[in-house]
Specification:
The N and C termini lie far apart (about 45 Å). The protein is globular and about 75 Å long. It contains 15 helices and twelve strands. The chain has two domains: about 240 residues, Type I PLP-dependent aspartate aminotransferase-like (Major domain) (Aspartate Aminotransferase, domain 2), CATH 3.40.640.10; about 140 residues, Aspartate Aminotransferase, domain 1. Strand 5, helix 7 and strand 6 form a beta-alpha-beta unit. The longest helix is centred in the middle third of the chain and has 23 residues. Helices cover about 35% and strands about 15% of the residues. Helix 1 packs antiparallel against helix 2, helix 2 runs parallel beside helix 9 and helix 3 packs parallel to helix 4. The structure holds pyridoxal-5'-phosphate. The site of pyridoxal-5'-phosphate has 15 residues, from helix 3 and helix 4.
């Protein structure tokens, strides 16, 4: 089946008891047992709930995996992955992961005897050098948040497979529509479904998909033990959302690409003479679809689109603050992936938990502004950018 057909139907046959086309919200905590040990597959909603089951089946199909697990947030999903490790184990992580992931690993899980090494994953030599005898997990984001750096995923998998290391990829920025890491050989795909999967800025959620029965069984056990599961209503909201994922992603991608080209044409020397608008003080535009983007070729190999996130850099914090406050249509807010356009200042917002020195070493300066490009009319969005940057 095609992606959109799967998105609309996978895991969601008409409800057998009523014929309802839309999977009901099974707002129940517990289930009738005819006699001891005789149930219909559901006993308590922390362990399993039919609305959540539909969502887990749906996302598994979209990510081309066998098993899906839904969580109450993206961080709960990432926490579950880190619980695959035991005290004394080591993990290698991209150095520009989402700030909350860095915080969980470095400031929480570290206290439980786990060790994390953060590396620039764009050079796989760094990965080879960072792996130790006790390395059990390599966790990466590709593209990363907010610098959109890309890891050669099959290359990383090759290095890890030889050493029996689990590879997990946070695929939040691409969504399963533009990238399927399981097809590139990874073991686990993670989503903050708060973002594109949800798409309407009205639900916090997380997902893990795998094709390994062993990893699934372990994570399902952890999911039930920790209990960070989504409510039936949140599961239902996500089921509603994945139905439109394909059309939303196409539009996010189109709008973001237009904006990236617009910004780029105003800073590159050759285009500047012909540029329609004068934009002051942009140092660089970051979007994997641009031909001058350093990892454009890798992006084209492993992604089928470039997504809806565009970052750019202005001179310094003062200029960034000035620009951020001038936006009218782009709303100053955390998060991303919704139908409405948002703007954020990663250094003081989403990535504030990463020490300044660490951030700047990785290129995340105080001048970086991140746009989550929504699905509004792109000419309105460009008009807003023009006036904010003028
Ligand atoms: C790439 C990425 N992964 C994970 C998370 C965490 O997800 P959540 O906020 O749903 O816990 C975020 C949140 O911004 C994110 O951007």
């Amino acid at each position: 089946m095609g992606f959109s057909t799967d998105a609309i139907h996978a895991g969601q046959p008409p409800d057998p008891s009523t014929g309802a086309i839309i999977t009901p919200i099974f707002q129940t905590t517990t289930y009738y047992q005819e006699e001891l040990g005789k149930d219909k597959g559901y006993v308590y909603s922390r362990s399993a709930n039919p609305t959540r089951t539909a969502l887990e089946k749906n996302i598994a199909v979209l990510e081309k995996g066998k098993y899906g697990l839904a969580f109450s947030s993206g961080m709960a999903a990432i926490h579950t992955v880190s619980k695959l490790l035991k005290a004394g184990d080591h993990a290698v992580v991209s150095n520009d992961v989402y700030g909350g992931t860095y915080r969980l690993f470095q400031k929480v899980m570290n206290d439980y005897g786990l060790e994390f090494t953060f590396i620039d994953m764009t050079d796989l030599q760094n990965l080879k050098e960072a792996i130790k005898p006790n390395t059990r997990l390599v966790h990466l984001e590709s593209p990363t948040n907010p610098l959109l750096t890309i890891t050669d995923i099959p290359g990383a998998v090759e290095i890890c497979k030889a050493k029996n290391i689990i590879v997990s990829v946070d695929n939040t920025f691409m969504s399963p529509y533009f990238q399927n890491p399981l097809l590139l050989g990874v073991d686990l795909v993670i989503h903050s479904s708060t973002k594109y999967l949800g798409g309407h800025s009205d639900v916090i959620g997380g997902m893990i998909v795998t094709s390994s029965e062993e990893l699934y069984e372990r994570m399902k056990f952890i999911q039930n033990s920790i209990g960070a599961v989504p409510s039936p209503f949140d599961s239902w909201l996500l089921l509603r959302s994945t139905k439109t994922l394909a059309v939303r992603m196409e539009r996010h991608n189109y709008n973001a690409f237009e904006i990236a080209k617009f910004l780029q044409s105003n800073i590159s020397g050759e285009n500047r003479a012909n540029a329609k608008y004068r934009i002051k003080n942009i140092k660089r535009v970051i979007y994997p679809g641009l031909e001058n983007y350093p990892q454009h070729e890798i992006a084209k190999k492993q992604m089928t689109g470039f997504g809806g996130m565009v970052s750019f850099e202005v001179e310094n914090f003062e200029r960034a603050k000035d620009v951020l406050h001038k936006f009218k249509l782009f709303t100053l807010a955390e998060s991303l992936g919704g139908v409405e356009s948002l703007v954020c200042h990663p250094a003081t917002m989403t990535h504030a938990s990463i020490p300044k020195e660490e951030r700047e070493k990785n290129g995340l300066t105080d001048g970086i502004i991140r746009l989550s490009v929504g699905i509004e009319d792109v000419f309105d969005l460009i008009d807003d950018i023009k006036q904010a940057l003028a």
